[in-house]
Request: fold
Amino acid sequence: MHVYGRGLRGLSLATSATLTAALILVFFYAPLDADQGFVQKIFYVHVPLAVVSLCGFVLGGIFAVQHLRTGDRRNDMRSYVVIHMSLIFAVGALITGSIWARASWGHWWEWNEPTLVSFLIVFLLYATYQPLRFSIEDPERQARYASVFAIVAGAFVPLNFIAVRLAQQYVHPRVLTLGGGNLPGPMRLTFIVSLFGIGLLYATLCKYELTAKHARRQLRALRRNVLGDDAVRPLQRSAAPS
Amino acid sequence: MILAAAPALPLHKAGPYVAAAYIVFLALILIYVTIMAIRLSRAERELTELARERARRDAQPRDRELERV
Reply:
């Protein structure tokens, strides 16, 4: 029975095509930045990773709201998976950002920079999501508490973003603004394709993870059906929704 | 062909940093795919085991019937 796997093949192909196009644009089309030169190419991977991970955290909150409203455990699963994936993308954003900082500022990290520190705070906040889930044994309570956490933390993400935007002192460049930003045409096109590609990658991996989890649950049910209850190991305590 | 036609990239100082950033991105995807591949092979093994068990059980009643005949 296809539940989560529907459209996965098309999505995977679209992701591969878009990411390939993005890489070609990054290295063979986008002009070199007049100020930073070749190092600026990191921008096309670092910023989309950060943007997609932050959007994913908010999406996790939206699924959590749906879970609390409807009581449907599938929304808890979706919330868990998108937050899990956002954490992985956030690790990528932090590492690539750190490499970029080292190349252009000479330091791996800048503690006086609100953008960097606020992103780290968001990351550390969400890093507690899995331990929180793991600490609660009862699956119902685990799902409920995790949803409350996801909603509160999800609301914190845009607030944090606005607070950083209002900050006056920063070293981190402001490229994307409500007025359209200050990227020249080819750079903007490359950035949009990269953002779209990484967004698609995020959606594909989430769908892949959801499909895999669903398949494992089906397999477990089949095992119980064929071999009986004794053949199925009792569920171990886990942070993932069962 | 694209690589041959492309202008030479200024890789002297910035190259290693840019390469490192893109390698990190690629590594994250590869690690994820590897973990998923391990899980998939485990699921496939379980499925094979279940299919074998099912076939064995299906064969048992037939053997008993043959014995009776």
